[in-house]
Design goal:
Layout lengths: L1 H9 L8 E2 L6 H6 L2 E2 L1 H16 L3 H5 L20 H11 L2
Antiparallel strand pairs: 1-2
Helix pairs in contact: 1-3
Length: 94
């Protein structure tokens, strides 16, 4: 599945040992980052993918944390809040 391929590409660990979130991280922020298991990444991707399958922009936007920054694939405008993320998916899911 796509989730499995993403999981394998994103983590060097082949088991379910905890890893650190590190997208755009600094050494200081990495020290404070909560551990996340590959299975948790897979589960979160599944929830997001299920929301996307509904074609409901609101359902997809609700999967993003309030501090999320979406760097969209078919737009050059970063989305930094719920309304911006929802607006992007309204257009994306048409």
């Amino acid at each position: 599945t796509l989730a499995t391929r993403l999981n394998a590409a994103s983590f060097s660990s082949k088991d379910d040992s905890p890893l650190r979130r590190n997208f755009f991280a600094t050494a200081k922020s990495m020290a404070k980052a909560p551990a996340i298991a590959p299975s948790e990444v897979t589960a979160l991707f599944g929830l997001w993918n299920d929301a996307l399958a509904t074609l409901d922009a609101d359902a997809v936007a609700k999967r993003y944390a309030s501090t999320s920054i979406l760097l969209p694939t078919v737009s050059d405008i970063p989305r930094t809040d719920y309304d911006g993320i929802k607006s992007y998916f309204v257009d994306f899911l048409e």
